[in-house]
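Honest question from a wet-lab person: if I give you the sequences of every part of a complex, can you actually get the arrangement of the whole thing, not just the pieces? Trying it with mine:
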Amino acid sequence: MAFLKSILISALIAGFVAGAALTGLQTLKVYPLIFAAEEIENAGGATAAHDHGDAKHHSGDATSDQGAVHSHDDEAWMPADGAERLLYSLLSNVLLGIALGLILAAIFALRHVATWRQGVVWGLAGFIAVNLAPALGLPPELPGMPAGALLARQTWWLSTALFTAGGIAMVFLCHGVIWRVAGVAVIALPHIYGAPHPVNLESAVPATLAADFTAASLATNLVFWTILGLLTAEAMARVSRGSESEIA
Amino acid sequence: MAQTGIAKHTDTSQARTAQVMQAGLAALLGLALFIGVALSHPAAVHNAAHDSRHGIAVPCH
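Yes, you can. This is the full assembly:
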């Protein structure tokens, strides 16, 4: 069980720090842009753009009932603006850090990754799989931007992340040209299939704001993954050194 | 000697299987936690994780 324990402890430490760092970085540009977009949305920009009505920015197809839950749903609980909202973002980011840290730590434990440099490389691969590749089809969204059905986009997003991670593993961890070619094909597959897009592309959110947000989101996530990979590897090395010296 | 070798080999391969199982469990736990925070639909979870979801660029609305 020392094996599992080292994975859990490393993921907890690295996830907490990386999630907290991500929250700090997001307060600089990501959150202000989200708030600005929400202001435009709440000012009635959506009605000027098209007939969203009460459904706001949901598409009107069959799966949109899944997407009916969002921050502007008056009946559902939501954190109050200000410190409470920031606190829940911090909590969410820490949990996401731990979640992704668990996956990295599991891989590190099996592959004996124990230096921070290797950790950073793995972190960069995580960034490509989880943020960069899905962003090619579904660019980071601001509230109020037009989008296709939620469930379809979530499915495409998760599939693309998993396919890209699998493809990267096939290219770098398998031996033989066939695996490498197949890996590239697996990475390309979700993009050939195509991401679900909305029919109407009109948006009340200015394009400059959206472009700003895309860059800010990708840059902050890159730093997050670098820290997460680095710290997970470092923590794994220290935890396993510690348990070895306990046995000895 | 040969038998000890085989026994040792079985031991290490069993230990490896146990390690793979534990790592797989941890990775699945991570995936489930990620989906819960980033993609799950309950309104309260969505609202709590709203800015975080936009920040990491998962489909949110």
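Two things worth pointing out. Helices of chain A lie at 2-28, 30-49, 83-111, 116-137, 150-173, 177-193, 207-247. Residues 2-60+81-148+197-247 of chain A form one domain.
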